[in-house]
Amino acid sequence: MKKSTLYGIVALVLCATAFGACNDDETYAEKKEKERKAINSFLQRDVTIVGPEGDTLCHVGRIHPISEKQFRSQDSTTNLENNEYVLFRNTGIYMQIVRRGAGRKMKSGESKQIVCQFLEYNILGDSLQLNSQVIYWAANPEILDVTNTSGTYTATFNTSIFGGGAMYQTYGNTSVPSGWLTPLNYINVGQQMSSDEGIAKVRLIVPHSEGHSNATTSVYPCFYEITYQETSRH
Questions:
Q1: In terms of Cα–Cα distance, which of 121, 98, 120, 101 is closest to 112?
Q2: Assigned domain for 3 exists
Q3: Could you read off the pLDDT of 56-69 as tens digits, one per residue?
Q4: Does residue 18 belong to any structural domain of this protein?
Q5: For 167-209, what is each residue's pLDDT tens digit?
Q6: How many Cα atoms are found within 13 Å in the side-chain-facing hemisphere of 41?
Q7: Which domain holds residue 166?
Q8: What ranges make up the beta strands (E) of the chain?
Q9: Average pLDDT in the 223-233 region?
Q10: For 22, phi and psi rounded to 5 degrees?
Q11: Global pTM value
């Protein structure tokens, strides 16, 4: 076989391989569609999130979505018996308020440090990604520096106190996902002063566009269970 013929065959094989690889790559639109289907399936699956030892961390259950109009008519609450989650259509976030919490809502112009405990579940990957309540993260709580500016919340993960918590140390970004800030419009952020008070607790489905940098880049949604409590550090 002539060298020119051999080179031609090799070139054709390489081109075919490259073309096939390109065809295998998902477009952004295809990734978003896969995310949408994963969320819709999650709503109906009666999911129970378990830890590495098989212990139940959160029974999500089958979710009953409600509109923002119904949410407002219920004094911005979600019925836990019906496992209601309000869907915010402009962001695609689903939220359930488990407890409104002690204290009061943040006022406009106010800044607070808020400590959060959370678990993060990758809906597309069907796996638990982070749990801040394990012993490894116990010494590094998630602390948010939050400011309310006329109803718009901005926040960063504080890295100066304990070097940052699970979110910062895992994803390397101080920006708090906007999905984490949505509940602040509806919950109280204070300190638990008595045993019969419960700190604010929510459950969220956060699409990639409202999530952390890794979720945004890889296009996957996460489920969160998060508590919010004002810290005494200022």
A1: 101
A2: no
A3: 999 999 999 999 99
A4: no
A5: 999 999 999 999 999 999 999 998 877 666 789 999 999 999 9
A6: 11
A7: 26-230
A8: 47-50, 56-61, 64-66, 84-88, 93-99, 111-122, 127-131, 142-149, 152-157, 200-206, 222-230
A9: 90
A10: -65, -40
A11: 0.87
- Which helix (H) or strand (E) element contains residue 44? helix 28-44
Which residue has tokens 């200022």? 234
Strand, coil or helix: 43: helix
* Residues near 70 by beta carbon (within 8 Å), at least 6 away in sequence: 86
Chain centroid to CA 222 = 5
Alpha helices per DSSP H over 45-148: 68-73, 135-138
Q: Do the domain assignments include residue 7?
A: no
DSSP state at residue 106: P
Q: Tell me which residue has tokens 């749990």.
A: 131
**3-class secondary structure, 194:** coil
Q: Strand 64-66 vs strand 84-88: parallel, antiparallel, or unpaired? A: parallel
Number of domains in the chain: 1
**Chain length of the chain:** 234
Cα 114 from Cα 229, distance rounded (Å): 5
Give domain status of residue 6, yes or no: no
Residues 126, 97 contacting (CB under 8 angstroms)? no
Taking every pair of Cα atoms in the chain, the longest distance, rounded to a whole number of angstroms, is: 88
C-alpha 10, offset from chain centre = 47
* Sequence letter at residue 177: P
CATH of the domain at 138: 3.10.50.40
Q: Which residues pair with 200 in a beta bridge?
A: 228
